[in-house]
What does this fold into?
Amino acid sequence: MQVRKLVIPVAGMGTRFLPATKEIPKEMLPIVDVPTIQLQIEEAAKAGIEEVILVTNDKKECILKHFKEDKELEEKLEKAGKTALLEKVRKINNNVKVLSVKQTVALGSANAIYQAKELVGNEPFAVMYGDDLIKGGCALKELIDVYNKYNGNVIGLQQVPHKLTYKYGIVSLVDEDTLEINDIVEKPKVEDAPSDLAGLGRYILNSEIFEVIENLKTGAGGEYQLTDAMKELMTKQKFYGCKFSGTYYDIGSQLGYIKANIMYALDRDDIKEDLISFMKDILK
Ligand code: UTP
It folds into this structure.
């Protein structure tokens, strides 16, 4: 079955980025001048996703508004002859249908994804975390290719330094060629990490994950964790890894956010040169 739908949970509290995220969702913080969530939807469009389901809450209304047409703004830009800006505003959702469901209490990633059960139905679907930005390539497309090859669930992976494995969900592989996975451990002690391969914010899951979540117990932080649900589903279905080609930025952390801004700015012809000379100056 084709992967047509993508669930992006954006109902977390963003506590690591307070006070900025007290009123502004971290997914709306701009990378240069584009909100992170818009970059995520650009990736989805490139991967052929037709429908994005945002899991939001009442404090995140501005994310939904960002993807709605704003006739007044468009008319003003048109009258002022600002056609380039008008184009930018018009292509915000990249022809992808954006729907939403609510998670009333932030009970964890698995609980957030569960809210999309009815909209997803009985088909395989993609999951992307709102704050895990991947620059270059199209990670989601690479994962979908792996899904289509093996017809199993897929986890987006990247190698992390061994001493930092305690920060991530770390997988254990059965086979180095197919990257078949038989276990995932959330934030292991460094000495217990089964590998240096971390699951980083991109997944393709079969709809049976919803049944697993219904019976899930709370895990780390007293929350319902997607990692625990996937670990359970691994006892019934196959999982494969996809070492995606792009560079990963955790924009939910200050350093990740700043690095992403610099790297995206260096891609911009209108900014690159001045930014480089500024950096050279301050590093003298
Ligand atoms: P994170 O754990 O990175 O987000 O969840 P968080 O909880 O908002 O961040 P901190 O640690 O407090 O700073 C990954 C993604 O899952 C969403 C978040 O919005 C984020 O995009 N999420 C998390 C939910 O939608 N609901 C939840 O209950 C938890």
About this structure: Residues 70 and 126 are 29 Å apart (CA to CA). The pocket of uridine 5'-triphosphate is lined by residues 9-17, 55, 103, 106-109, 111-112, 129-131, 252 (CB under 6 Å). The chain has one domain: 5-268. The first strand starts at residue 5 and ends at 9.
